[in-house]
Amino acid sequence: MVHFYPFEVNVAHIAYTCLGGFIVIFGMFSLLLREKIYVGEACWAFVFGIIIGPYAAGIFDPHSWAGGNEEVVNTVTLEITRVVLAVGVFAIGVELPKAYMKRHWKSLFMLLAPIMTWGWFVSAALIYALVPGLNFLSSLAVAACLTPTDPILAAAVVGGKYADKHVPAHIRHLLAAESGCNDGAAFPFLYLALYLIIDSSTGEAIKDWFLILWLYQVILGVLIGASLGIAFRYLMKFCENHNLIDRHSYVAQYISLAMLATGGTSLLGSDDLLSSFACGTAFAWDGFFNRQTEESNFSSVLDLLFNIASFVYVGAWMPFDSFSDEHLTLSVWRLIVIAILVLLLRRLPIMLALYRWIPDIKTFREAIFAGHFGPMGIGAVFISTLAAEVLLKHLEEPTEQQELLIDSIQPIVAFMVLCSILVHGLSIPGFSLGRRVHSVSRTWSRHTTQGPDGRPDWTNQARLVEKGEDIVINRDHDAAEKGELSPDQTEVSSTPDENELKHERQLERDTIEEAERRSPAEPVEGDVPDGEDIISEWKEGQHRVVERRAGPGEEVEVEVLRNYYADGDGSSHKFRGKRAHAHDQLQEYINKLRAVPQVVEEDATKAAHAIEKDINEVKRTLSPNDNEQVQDEDDGDWMSEPEENEGDSKMATRSKSSKSRPSRRRKSASSGSKDELRGRRVDQLKLQHQRRESSSSRSVRFAGDEELSPGPSVSFDIPDVGPSSGRS
């Protein structure tokens, strides 16, 4: 009989349950935790990992995997952190502004060369001074793990609502680019110390450091990543132009291309983190990928999942039992002192000394902020685990100093990560609380100062008011008090509230006038312009659209060059504002441009129909009617009557002539008046046609826009359909 036991409890199922439950609960209260308390997911996930770890609940214990084999645990830790960092630095490279590395390489060079070198030596000196068992070379290896800025923790701390409001965009971009670069840029510092430990001579170590590290790992890794990014950028454009890629596949590039760059570079043994960052930067170099995915929140969702998973794992992985170990010459108080001094001296002094030579750091306050925000997190865990793996692999018979370094490098780095998560993760709430706290000082005296009349001594020069009638409120102006107004002059008094309101209105008007007088080239104090470089440009029909950075933060300027790819008339129209608002205005404007030919054609058709109708009316007006034809026939009958006799004929002729002359005069007058009326009617109709012709050839305009394109001009000739001038 089969024993029924439905429960399947193992490490993987426990990890799924704990991770999924925490993400669900955190998501339910994420607005409160991230946007009100200003504590990001990194701190909460790290604390949750400690709670479920082996030193609290004991539910999730990475150190117990594979029977406590530390090599297996190190391998799992190394690969988990490698994937998280690769995706993180790739996302940073993608989300940087267009061609950011080309325009800001000077600032990045200062952060990666002198500032990282300073931090490396200072951290090594502090570790060497406070950890008795390690020599200076071993301290350099440990300090190399603490030198870089962690991209995952930096994104979780600096990417929140508070940072969006109070941290300038150029500082956020600079810190993000630095954190994307210097995890891979820490390899030269780490491998220089490792080669000096592993190799038999200093010359051989320098040769390996230059040939293997710089040429093969760093330079080759950057070339591989950049080549992949450029190739797939052109491939994506080709697929987009030929309708071969759907919208969902765009956002999948965040993780798929990052995994491709990391996996391919790792197979060759090069610097996979620098390769991933170079791939992301080259892939989004011209802003095409960002435009296609700007409405997608996939990157934010991906960052949230990877950040929570990685920090939960690190919280459970923390080796708390090694923080106080006599064999490793470690103690808690030594580690606390090292952490405090490292956080104070690793970046801040050198940043304050060199910020004048860093173009993107413009003020002393920005230098303090950039010097403070150098968090240590997942990147430090990855580099320390990699160092332990390299030492175990290349040292067949390690010395006592080398064994001490292998055993102590991860506990020291883990304690620094613990302190950095607490300090940097709680910095934003501290800044927010400090802005709301206002101190009020009060003075309290225990001595009585009453005089003989029961009044305090400090009121002996003041008038005592005993009744309400004694209170007089003077609302006169200073001019009346000084006697500058004559007695017969009256002045409208105003209450203090009205005066204050007028003063505020005047200040507001002065501020608006000053802002209007200020030229665009004069930056307002406090604004930090990001330049006016072209962000992107594209084609809309026959028109060219150029998007430029136009001011501080995310403000852009979008210019439409009409008919740029056709006749190139040189006319243009500009929109300026937030990127989303400017793009909405652009879309509305493009739709109007597309509707212009149809509107002009409809107007021309209506004008042609109206002209044809007027021509028919002219013809009907000018054609002879039946009465005129009858009258003409009657007038001509007297000439065709037969003559009966000569006398009668003469008398009849005279009689007919005398009778017909008034009628013929009336006929001539009537005919002349009709011709005159017909002429005036023709002139009026011609004037109407000319006006309609000018209106049909009008130009179509939009609000706030110059002339777009003239409509067709319709002209015609009115035929002369009046009576013949030779009629007698």
From TrEMBL:
Keyword Transmembrane helix assigned: yes
Chain ranges passing through the membrane: 12-33, 42-60, 80-96, 108-130, 136-159, 180-198, 210-236, 301-320, 332-355, 367-392, 412-433
UniProt-listed GO biological process terms: intracellular potassium ion homeostasis; proton export across plasma membrane; regulation of membrane potential; sodium ion export across plasma membrane
PANTHER family assigned: NA(+)/H(+) ANTIPORTER, NA(+)_H(+) ANTIPORTER
InterPro entries according to UniProt: Cation/H_exchanger_TM (IPR006153), Na+/H+_antiporter_fungi (IPR004712)
Record keyword Transport present: yes
Predominant place of localization: membrane
Location in the cell: Membrane
Coiled-coil regions listed: none
GO cellular component term, pick one: plasma membrane
UniProt family annotation: Belongs to the fungal Na(+)/H(+) exchanger family.
GO MF annotation terms: sodium:proton antiporter activity
The protein's name in its UniProt record: Cation/H+ exchanger transmembrane domain-containing protein
Segments of this protein annotated with the region Disordered: 469-532, 615-728
Residue ranges with Polar residues bias: 487-496
Alphabetic keyword roster: Antiport, Ion transport, Membrane, Sodium, Sodium transport, Transmembrane, Transmembrane helix, Transport
Stretches with biased composition (Basic and acidic residues): 469-485, 499-520, 673-695
Residue ranges with Acidic residues bias: 629-646
Residue ranges occupied by any Cation/H+ exchanger transmembrane domain in the UniProt entry: 29-429
Pfam families, sorted: Na_H_Exchanger
Protein topology in the membrane: Multi-pass membrane protein
Compositional bias per record (Basic residues), positions renumbered to this chain: 656-668
Superkingdom in the source lineage: Eukaryota
